[in-house]
Design goal:
The complex is a heterodimer of chains A (119) and B (108). Chain A has 119 residues and is mostly beta strands. Chain A is 0% helix and 54% strand. In chain A, the strands form 2 sheets. In chain A, strands 2, 4, 5, 6, 9, 10 and 11 form a 7-stranded mixed beta sheet that branches. Chain A starts with a strand and ends with a strand. Chain B is mostly beta strands and 108 residues long. Helix content of chain B is 0%, strand content 49%. Chain B has strands at 4-7, 10-13, 19-25, 34-39, 46-50, 54-55, 63-68, 71-76, 86-91, 98-99, 103-107. In chain B, a hairpin with a 6-residue loop joins strand 9 (86-91) and strand 10 (98-99). The N and C termini of chain B lie far apart (35 Å). The chains are: A mainly beta (119), B mainly beta (108).
């Protein structure tokens, strides 16, 4: 069965960096676009980025462009989000999700990982 | 960026009632690039509707989606206790995907 498991979250100081990972299993990882979405405490969903199967096409939200970098390693079935210059407003649960390009939907989501930016 | 505005913010209804949720886009969205998600407290979202009107696998028939252009609707014909949750619309039409701010369906 499809599984997505995020890791790498935690407490980081403002201005710091953090790298999130998403381990994928149960499907042919390289055949799917993947996406990052976050949710600040008590708030709605915010799309952050998506990356195509080969890793050559990446689109990011303007709110994180230049600070967050999305990448993938198809040899390890993993997706990554490198976050830098973190701010208090980046505090959120971060989800990775699989994009089903055939049906145009985010059909599987991880359980999420909490990132807290605080001094 | 395509802004999605959901209304109402909160819908207070009783089990068995009909729920109608709206999502308006700031510019036209092709119907195949529009979806609805449900999120319950402490859980990841799950897709309900894709391509504006197609139910995702395992989604009950009481959930239906419709719309075109800039106006989209999610309808739950008869609310079950497990349907009380937050619902989000999403568009994939532009390279900047966006979500609506959410509609909370709460028990009256």
């Amino acid at each position: 069965q499809v599984q997505l498991v995020e890791s790498g979250g935690g407490l980081v100081k403002p201005g710091g960096s953090l790298r999130l990972s998403c381990a994928a299993s149960g499907f042919t990882f390289k055949d799917y676009y993947m996406s990052w979405i976050r949710q600040a405490p008590g708030k709605g969903l915010e799309w952050l980025s998506y990356i195509n199967g080969g890793g050559s096409t990446i689109f990011s939200a303007d709110s994180v462009k230049g600070r967050f970098t999305t990448s993938r390693d198809n040899t390890k079935n993993s997706l990554h989000l490198q976050m830098s210059s973190l701010r208090a407003e980046d505090t959120a649960v971060y989800y990775c999700a699989r994009y089903n390009w055939n049906d145009e939907m985010l059909d599987y989501w991880g359980q999420g990982v909490l990132v807290t930016v605080s001094s | 960026e395509i802004v999605l505005t959901q209304s109402p913010g909160t819908l207070s209804l009783s089990p068995g009632e009909r729920a109608t949720l709206s999502c308006r886009a700031s510019q036209s969205v092709r119907t195949i690039y529009f979806a609805w998600y449900q999120q319950k407290p402490g859980q990841a979202p799950r897709v309900l509707i894709y391509g504006t009107s197609n139910r995702a696998p395992g989604i009950p028939v009481r959930f239906s989606g419709s719309g075109s252009g800039t106006d989209f609707t999610l309808t739950i014909t008869r609310l079950e206790p497990e349907d009380f949750a937050v619902y989000y619309c999403q568009q994939y039409y532009s390279s900047q995907w966006t979500f609506g701010q959410g509609t909370k369906v709460e028990i009256k």
